[in-house]
């Protein structure tokens, strides 16, 4: 694993737990974790259960005792690491967004196609049991032809203007703001559940707070408070509407300024014969309508629901971390059987192209912009 | 009153009931109702409690025993009737949308300015106690600066392709489809609650079902089934995103194809210090967040909530019809005191201009289109 | 009508409105209202739409222009008025609880049986569309054999110890407290929906605040504050568990001390094949489960739902008052067709006997007490 | 650890994960797991991460490399194991209910008092962050004096009469049915949150399905289907009402026949100044009312909420398993610091005495029965 921050912690928990709940074809060994600071990486290794550490990801990739590389770093390093790992014959699981630009993502897709290893982009929300169930319902034809997708990912963690300028607010590190961080998830979820693509968009983006205090980590030593601010170079919020390949309409809203919404990753899908609704803040529930004035709140904890049978009895809900456990279970199965994992780097590129079209539209008077194929 | 269909029925109930609950400065008398068919209008008068009937609205306007004219007809006749009534010295309350075009609405605003009578456009959702309370909270500064408005009006009554071509699906009668019928409500509600204007939009519209069976009422006699279809000439759905005068972003979605949603007129407003959420399908509730991870579900039935004290004890909810009772109460008070009723025809025109910008944007590649002042 | 307070107002609104929405076999005329104070009764008549007033209910009963007597007074006068009215050949609709004692209720049942007029006790919650739909589902066998009823009626209007000693807190007027006022409703609703009887109970009751300030209305002139308190002689809360005639278990809780619950009249019914749940604070919704981990939230506003077709399009909810409109519509139909209205005085007596068993059990160490047949 | 079934799996996951999220004073080592079948215990050890196995719990207790014994067996063996382990100088964490009888529980409390080791009964629901937050609110006086507790634990896993006669339906193994299995949890939660005791109860219990097919595990070899049924010797459902030490009323309902409810462990607490509500089916939410007609839905995922800061950012919910992680974290801290863990065996005994009073009341015509001190 490369990276030991938020994503590193949650991936580690998944690697540590997956074998206790799923019958796996491969028994993962948590061999080595890489990070720049030796001290911090060693502390992380001890806490998270990794046997060894490296301070340079290139060294990690060279190791013979490593077959799978799990990339948990910010987006600006994804392409370099993933391509090198694939070329070294490793299997790669890479955090989303796949890359910070379409060009990088394309290079990654080419590398994945050329390499023997398997590759997957970690859109973990596909592994929320309720979202996997939604996909199943659409595949089974239960909602008919898709008319509308309404997706939003609402957070509020930077509402306070005094919240510091962390790396996620810097374009060179993060690529974009709410758009790439959380907008990517709802675009992927919409495409995953419907089985359709977003083919064009019209967009608005906004940065409400344009200057913020430097984070302690990035503030220069001895800088006075007045000097300690920096420009926010990414979007705080991105709104876009668009068309789906099947003729439906879609709306998306990704924002970090939705006061009171903590992680409201929501999607509603309206079809000609039924509809579905989901909100991650109640992640064990899927709402389904098939007529008669009603919406059924399905508690997605039944044995025949996706992933759920491996865990607890009905009604004993899962949490955020389990989406990663499911992701790794699926990845290990693909590696073992030689199947192509999903979502593939190509799926990640597809999302990246939607995000690029969003940025182009926003820069071009919201003009409707086709998503490249 | 002119018109006795759906809107006529609900307005009549409001006229009949308002005096029993509110201490009014004027006691309304339900003098006369006008409709084209004498027989049907007489039946309606008997059922709805009107003392007399006219079969020509021009005759109604001439009558000395009429001081207030309530226009409940489709949008194509609003301008003619309202202008004539105002010129005849009557007070006018007119159903929304104010008119089918901006030009008509402008003429109505001019007539209202020139006439002695009071005029109001019947955006009844302003009189949902929860929406009036939301407005109060914004005015009191409880949510701070507005960052986001997320509004949707979701219905599903024409999901079935066999649903007939009623007047609401014909451009010459209705002006537009979901846009003018229900989109108008959420634009008005957004502007009302925030106290801001929508200043520009980018839009997509769609007609999913382009041809429908003629309604019994409009089908030619003896036409065979195959001949009995007609073109749908309005939008089934309209999506638009835009900017508010205070710098916030807004998204709107009006559709009649949201399977399972019956009358989900929803609005969420996120500010710098708090937020609000409402869904008409639970019309007695307002959700409010002001920190700490929580959203408070306020049951808007307390004595100090808008309008509610006149009705029942706390927890005894109101229904759809009461929004009209409140509207008429406010209108009668304005007439009695000489105050200007709200929403005024100018407010109606303002909404109309937003709708026009939506249509222009949709016709022009979703390009961001400023709303005329 | 006799009585013009809270119940008088809501019944009047129902009499005034019913004809505009339902095709009635009889056109009601709001002839006369009775109250003790001439001045107040005249004001009420003017506001509520009654043509004439009486200050003695006995005079009202004598009038030839009165065929139906609607009793909206406190429970201590129900028996006298209802029996006199029935003996005078009138049809009678009587507010609940039917009487303050079983003996009175029995006398009323006998009078009803002997008289030509129709009689009904006004358990209005039976006419909530969602509750009527729940009854329909049980009758259709959709939930199978009843295992559990969980019913609660939660209010909080006397949580404040300074709330005054109104008539509802005095045993001589009200008969009992939460038990008869709101407990009666949930007992009736449980029996109505399930079609079964409560056959025995074990109960606890409590009066949390035993002394309260006298209400302005009842305080002696010139009494000092210290002298102006009186004993609360009824229960603040009543809890009871029991058995149903079909073998299921039931729990009931009626309280005026449920801080934050305003009118939470709730009932959950669990059967061998399905279940139902309702909360009056969201009165347009019924929840239904029939397997698969889900509960369907049915918005009870569809044309084929009970009573609803007469009102508005789907999704346009009803309020508290409409339960009374439906009650009067059903009563008028029964009067016109000669059918026996439901709930009958015998149904009211049945509820009274359950309440009596509750009081006996509470007085006898919560011992399980059979409900008399 | 002793036992590797459902509870063994979830406890193992907690032991395995706790160190990655909490800074612990002690680093637990998963030394050895005991079970009767060598083969099955070895498979469990491999899957769940235990280093060694024993097939006799007495051998496990003798081992020097064991300092803590975690008892995950059915209730009939709790007393023997816990007492032996305590006498052997081990720390003991024991699944609930503490024992199958009050006598056993008393012996365990005596053993705990006499032994040097620490002991805790595993009422894991105390470690749901929302329930811990509810306790905090009560302690802070936010809801005032307790008037009502309404608790229910609703499941439906044996609704089907063909569901087999597993050990939980046999009195000799399980002690009681819904009462001890899930009723124990709500009694403990009520006492924990309020800080009060249940001092007396009146109860009804029922066994709806009195005979069931034998489970494969317990069916005799060669028994025909007709012979393969057995008596259900425990309650399917237990309802009881009672009084709290502070003067409030409480109602409890524990059932396995609540069709459609999977793990609805619910508690509402109404005080003189506020109230709280919780439902485990939405375990990351706590509802709180403190006036004005509102109930606040608190998403219990904020950094300052109990336990939550150690996990993910706000809005990223926890699941069932994390209650056990918290339990073990608290237990390890108590062991390290020498503090007495909570809930203690004495707390477990207190719950046991309430359950015993429930059984006595149910057997004695629901008579109100005091809970022994």
UniProtKB/TrEMBL annotation, chains A, B, C, D:
Q: Please indicate which superkingdom the organism of origin belongs to.
A: Bacteria
Q: Does the keyword Transport apply?
A: no
- Identify one Pfam family in the record: GFO_IDH_MocA_C3
Q: What is this protein called?
A: Gfo/Idh/MocA family oxidoreductase
Q: Which GO terms describe its molecular function?
A: nucleotide binding; oxidoreductase activity
Q: Which InterPro entries match?
A: Gfo/Idh/MocA-like_OxRdtase_N (IPR000683), Gfo/Idh/MocA_oxidrdct_glycsds (IPR050463), GFO_IDH_MocA-like_dom (IPR055170), NAD(P)-bd_dom_sf (IPR036291)
Q: Which SUPFAM superfamilies match?
A: Glyceraldehyde-3-phosphate dehydrogenase-like, C-terminal domain, NAD(P)-binding Rossmann-fold domains
Q: Please report the stretch or stretches of sequence annotated as the GFO/IDH/MocA-like oxidoreductase domain.
A: 133-276
Q: Does the keyword Nucleotide-binding apply?
A: no
Q: Which UniProt keywords apply?
A: Oxidoreductase
Domain Gfo/Idh/MocA-like oxidoreductase N-terminal: residue ranges: 1-122
């Amino acid at each position: 694993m490369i990276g030991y921050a938020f994503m590193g912690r949650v991936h580690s928990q998944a690697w540590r737990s997956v074998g206790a709940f799923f019958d796996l074809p491969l028994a993962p060994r948590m061999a080595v974790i890489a990070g720049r600071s030796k001290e911090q990486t060693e502390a992380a290794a001890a806490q998270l259960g990794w046997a060894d550490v490296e301070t340079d990801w290139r060294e990690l990739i060279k190791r013979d005792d490593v077959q799978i590389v799990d990339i948990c770093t910010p987006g600006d390093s994804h392409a370099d690491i993933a391509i090198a790992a694939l070329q070294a014959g490793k299997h790669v699981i890479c955090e989303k967004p796949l890359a910070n630009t379409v060009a990088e993502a394309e290079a990654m897709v080419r590398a994945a196609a050329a390499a023997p290893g398997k590759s997957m982009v970690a859109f973990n929300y596909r592994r929320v049991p309720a979202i996997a169930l939604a996909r199943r319902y659409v595949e089974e034809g239960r909602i008919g032809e898709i008319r509308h997708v309404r997706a939003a990912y609402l957070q509020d963690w930077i509402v306070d203007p005094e919240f510091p300028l962390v790396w996620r607010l810097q374009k060179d590190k993060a690529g974009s703001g709410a758009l790439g961080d959380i907008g990517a998830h709802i675009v992927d979820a919409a495409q995953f559940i419907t089985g359709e693509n977003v083919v064009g968009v019209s967009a608005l983006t906004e940065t409400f707070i344009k200057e913020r205090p430097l984070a302690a980590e990035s503030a220069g030593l001895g800088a006075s408070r007045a000097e300690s601010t920096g420009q926010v170079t990414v979007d705080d919020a991105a709104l876009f509407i668009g068309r789906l390949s099947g003729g439906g309409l879609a709306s998306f809203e990704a924002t970090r300024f939705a006061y009171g919404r903590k992680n409201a990753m929501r999607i509603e899908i309206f079809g000609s014969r039924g509809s579905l609704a989901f909100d991650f803040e109640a992640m064990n529930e899927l709402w389904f309508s098939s007529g008669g004035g009603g919406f059924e709140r399905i508690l997605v904890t039944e044995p025949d629901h996706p992933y759920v049978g491996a865990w607890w009895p009905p009604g004993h809900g899962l949490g955020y971390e389990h989406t990663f456990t499911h992701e790794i279970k699926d990845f290990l199965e693909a590696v073992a059987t030689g199947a192509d994992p999903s979502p593939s780097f190509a799926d990640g590129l597809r999302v990246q192209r939607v995000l690029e079209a969003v940025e182009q539209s926003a820069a071009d008077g919201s003009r409707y912009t086709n998503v490249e194929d």
